[in-house]
Specification:
Elements: H1 40-49, H2 60-63, H3 69-87, E1 92-96, H4 104-119, H5 125-159, E2 167-170, H6 176-186, E3 192-196, E4 213-216, H7 219-227, E5 230-235, H8 240-254, E6 263-266, H9 268-274, H10 277-282, E7 295-297, H11 300-311
Parallel strand pairs: 1-2, 1-5, 2-3, 3-4, 5-6, 6-7
Helix pairs in contact: 3-7, 4-5, 5-6, 5-11
Length: about 325
C-alpha cells in the first residue's frame, strides 16, 4: 500500500490570517525534545497552562486575530442590544454635539485664569489665541445648558411616567454629551453612553447610567446603535464628528434606508453659517424638499415642540432595523 495515502498536509492558514501568526511547523517532530522527561505534575501543569487548552471564548489572543473580525463585529452588535432589551429600553433620542463645549462655570474659570496670566505676562500670541478661544467657550456654554435642559425635560416627560421611550443616548464623552447625560441624571432618569476607543482614550462622563454604558472598538457598530432605536436626533454645534454623524443620518433618511425621524439642529446662527443648504439647492446637489428633513431650534423648549409636532404626542417604535 502506498504510504503517501496516509500523509495529510497541515490545514491552510485561515483567510486574512494575521501576519504575526506562527508559521506551521515542518513535519511532525517528536521524541525527547518534544516530550521531555518531566514529573507528571509538571507535565499536567504545562498542559493546562498551554494557550491551546484555553476555552475558545476565553482566549483573547484568538479573539483579537484579524480573521476573527466578523465575530468581533457581531459581538459589538449583539451585546448592547441584549442589554437594552433586558433594561426595557424601547426607544431613544440621540444627542450629538461638540466634546469641547464646557459648562458656564468651568468656561468662566478657565477664562479668568487666562486673564490673570495675561495681566502678569508680556504679550504672547499663543496666550492671545487661548484667550480668544476661552471667550468663545464662555459664549458656547449656552449650548451645554440647553442640552442639559432638553435632556432633563424629555427624560422627565417619559421616564417619570415609567415609559422607556426617548431615552437619551450620547457618545458618552465630555461637552454636549456630558450635558445631555447630566440632564437625564438630574431628572432621576436613565441615559445611555456609547463610548469609543480612541488613540487618546475617551473617558466616559460620570452621568451615564452604569448599566447603560457601552464601549466600542468599531465606529460602524457604534453608529448603528445610535440609530437602531432612535425616534429623534438633536444635533448641537460641533466639529467633524458631529457633522459626520448628522449627514449620515440625513443621507439614510433621504435615501429611504431608515424611516424618517425628526432631526433638530440647535443653534440657527451656527448651522446656517456652517452649511449653506440653500446654495446646495441652487447648485442642484440636493432637492428643494431635502431641506425639510430637518428643522432649527435655539432652546430646549423649541426642541421639545419640534418632537411633539412630529409625533403629535404619540411616539412610535424604534426607527432602525
Amino acid at each position: 500500500m502506498n504510504d503517501s495515502f496516509f500523509i495529510r498536509r497541515p490545514p491552510p492558514p485561515p483567510e486574512n490570517a494575521p501576519e504575526s501568526a506562527a508559521e506551521p511547523q515542518a513535519g511532525c517532530p517528536g521524541g525527547p525534545a518534544t516530550n521531555p522527561p518531566l514529573p507528571e505534575a509538571e507535565r499536567l501543569r504545562a498542559i493546562v497552562e498551554s494557550p491551546t487548552y484555553r476555552l475558545a471564548y476565553e482566549d483573547l489572543d484568538l479573539l483579537t486575530q484579524k480573521d476573527l473580525r466578523p465575530l468581533r463585529l457581531q459581538l459589538e452588535l449583539l451585546k448592547p442590544e441584549r442589554v437594552l432589551y433586558e433594561q426595557g429600553v424601547h426607544s431613544t433620542v440621540v444627542v450629538f454635539g461638540s466634546a469641547r463645549v464646557r459648562d458656564a462655570a468651568t468656561a468662566r474659570d478657565r477664562l479668568a485664569a487666562l486673564e490673570r496670566q495675561a495681566d502678569s505676562a508680556a504679550a504672547d500670541p499663543v496666550l492671545e489665541r487661548q484667550l480668544a478661544q476661552a471667550r468663545r467657550r464662555v459664549e458656547q456654554a449656552r449650548y451645554y445648558e440647553e442640552a442639559q435642559r432638553f435632556a432633563r425635560l424629555i427624560s422627565a416627560r417619559f421616564q417619570q411616567e415609567r415609559r422607556c421611550d426617548f431615552v437619551v443616548v450620547t457618545g458618552g464623552g465630555p461637552g454636549i454629551m456630558e450635558a445631555a447625560n447630566r440632564g437625564a441624571f438630574e431628572a432621576g432618569a436613565r441615559s445611555i453612553g456609547l463610548n469609543i476607543t480612541l488613540p487618546h482614550e475617551q473617558a466616559p462622563n460620570p452621568y451615564i447610567t452604569p448599566a447603560l454604558a457601552f464601549r466600542f472598538h468599531y465606529f460602524a457598530m457604534r453608529k448603528m446603535h445610535f440609530l437602531m432605536h432612535a425616534l429623534a436626533l438633536v444635533s448641537f454645534p460641533g466639529g467633524y464628528g458631529t457633522l459626520d454623524e448628522l449627514f449620515e443620518v440625513l443621507t439614510l433618511i433621504q435615501t429611504g434606508k431608515m424611516p424618517r425621524i425628526p432631526v433638530v439642529l440647535v443653534g440657527r446662527t451656527f448651522w446656517r453659517r456652517v452649511v449653506d443648504f440653500d446654495y446646495l439647492i441652487d447648485e442642484g446637489y440636493i432637492a428643494a424638499e431635502d431641506i425639510d428633513l430637518f428643522q432649527y431650534a435655539d432652546d430646549a423648549e423649541e426642541i421639545m415642540a419640534a418632537l411633539e409636532g412630529f409625533y403629535a404626542g404619540t411616539p412610535r417604535k424604534g426607527a432602525g432595523e
